[in-house]
Amino acid sequence: MSRAHAKAAHVTGDDVRRIALALPDTTEKIAWSMPTFRVAGKMFATLPEDETSIAVRCPKEERDELVLAEPEKFWIADHEAMFAWVRARLSALDTAELTDILADSWRQAAPTRLLDAYPELGVPPTD
Predict the structure, then answer these.
(1) What distance in Å separates the CA atoms of residue 8 and residue 32, rounded to the nearest whole number?
(2) Confidence (pTM)
(3) Can you spell out the DSSP letters for 90-120?
(4) How far apart are CA 23 and CA 67, in angstroms?
């Protein structure tokens, strides 16, 4: 399947649930009238805007670069500007990118014991 074709079939809230809940020690909880996903009780993703986007943890420096590089895909919600979170439009993501984004956010919230127990999900090597 070509990359362009994969993008055409964008991901859904059900895909977010399936991928997020497959990560170790992850639970779904409704908060602020929306689904949130937590690892060991610590939130790492939400499904706001009628499940058309996700909000995930992202270091502020990286977040700002993402938004500048791909504004059609990423943005910062006004009420989250002071926090290390970024939004991504599900219609702009494919399954592989969604999986990477959720795993990265999970790593930022997961306790050391889980990072140690699941080294394949651990912090990716730096270049």
Answers:
(1) 31
(2) 0.88
(3) GGG--HHHHHHHHHHHHHHHS-HHHHHH-GG
(4) 26
Task: Tell me if residue 41 falls in helix, strand or coil.
Answer: coil
In single-letter form, the type of residue at position 111 comes to P
Using CA atoms, how far residue 81 sits from 49, 105, 120, 121, in Å, is: 17, 17, 31, 27
Q: How far is CA 100 from the centre of its chain?
A: 8
The pLDDT tens digits of the residues spanning 81-101 come to 999 999 999 999 999 999 999
87 near 53, Cβ under 8 Å?
A: yes
Q: Measured between alpha carbons, how far is 81 from 101 in angstroms, rounded to an integer?
A: 19
